[in-house]
Amino acid sequence: MLQDRKNEHLDVVLNGLGQSRARTGFDDIMFEHVALPELHMDEIDLQTVFLGKQTSAPLLVSSMTGGPARAAEINRHLALACQEMGIALAVGSQRIALEGDKAAGIDADLRQWAPDIPLLANFGAAQLNLGYGLEQARRAVGMIGADALIIHLNPLQEAVQPEGDRDWRGLLKRIETLASALGVPLVVKEVGAGITGRLARQLVDAGVAAIDVAGAGGTSWAAVEAERAKSPEQAAIARAFVDWGTPTAYAIKSVREACPDAVVIGSGGVRDGLDVAKAIRLGADMVGQAAGILQAAIVSPEAVLASLRVTVAQLRVACFCTQSANLAELKNANLLRQIP
């Protein structure tokens, strides 16, 4: 049943039916254009360090998933492209692999395809109330040689999914226990409804190393669940929440203000390199993309590379036209319009 559900999720997203009605908030931000940048664009430095490894740009290919047959191919394409580009990769949920079914391309091969990049393992927070703990976390990390583990938060999806996990009591304490014993950094991310400052502060105080805000404006898992609902009643419950969540831009700003020293990943409806630049300016250290790369990931590593190269080129242009020689300067670029 889990494999079937993952395949249904992938089909909905690929068919363009899982889009949130919410706006990311990036359109509310406008950079001041610098007409005389006094830079050589080719010399702009986009490199950064993430999880102790240098990356060529502040990009993270965010978690994607699917049934085992397709997911294996998707993960291979992503790993090969990210290795070639020198950018970070987060895998989709490893629950199927951890529970003894097919690995879905999430196994030791992944590290062989991508030996040098930051690689992040992943499973859902709700599983911590269903028997998962340190053993499963270490297995998730070990099966791909990951540099960190993502625990993803998806309460809205679970709430509108008939087979969803409803018991979310005590999870903050379980996350704290896991963070203290795991041995690699723990990352907490939402899946499209956003994390804001108040919760981020609690998570960082509990030992979480990085927050991926995964805000509203991209894929809506309420919309996805509405599409796969088996009855009009189930669809109606889910559809009411298609625009639910904190817009990505607002989530990034809120988390950065509440957690000035934390590692912040901005994701959720990131369309292009200009959105990446805006996320960095708002306080993100890394910026994630998922659905925007999925169509390319179905095709080939070369298609993924082409998509990523366009995003990096757009980010470089944004830096050039804001007179930002590197990411530190981009974080302080002048704005004509910003969110409150």
Automatic annotation (TrEMBL):
Which GO MF terms are attached to this record?
FMN binding; isopentenyl-diphosphate delta-isomerase activity; magnesium ion binding; NADPH binding; oxidoreductase activity
Co-factor requirement? NADPH; FMN; Mg(2+)
Main location group: cytoplasm
Cellular component aspect of the GO annotation: cytoplasm
Locate the FMN-dependent dehydrogenase domain: which residues? 173-316
For this protein, the record's InterPro entries field holds: Aldolase_TIM, FMN-dep_DH, IPdP_isomerase
Does the record bear Magnesium in its keywords? yes
Cellular localization per UniProt: Cytoplasm
- One Pfam short name: FMN_dh
Reaction catalysis annotation: isopentenyl diphosphate = dimethylallyl diphosphate
EC number of this enzyme: 5.3.3.2
Residues bound to FMN? 62-65, 93, 122, 189, 219, 269-271, 290-291
The lineage's top-level taxon is Bacteria
Signal peptide coordinates: none
Q: Which residues bind Mg(2+)?
A: 158
Which residues hold substrate?
5-6, 93-95, 157
What are the alphabetically sorted keywords of the record? Answer: Cytoplasm, Flavoprotein, FMN, Isomerase, Isoprene biosynthesis, Magnesium, Metal-binding, NADP
Q: Does the keyword rRNA-binding apply?
A: no
Where exactly are the transmembrane stretches of this chain? Answer: none
- Single Gene Ontology BP annotation: isoprenoid biosynthetic process
What function does this protein fulfil?
Involved in the biosynthesis of isoprenoids. Catalyzes the 1,3-allylic rearrangement of the homoallylic substrate isopentenyl (IPP) to its allylic isomer, dimethylallyl diphosphate (DMAPP).
Family, per entry: Belongs to the IPP isomerase type 2 family.
**What is the annotated quaternary arrangement, including any partners?**
Homooctamer. Dimer of tetramers.
- Which protein is depicted? Isopentenyl-diphosphate delta-isomerase
Q: Which organism is it from?
A: Devosia crocina
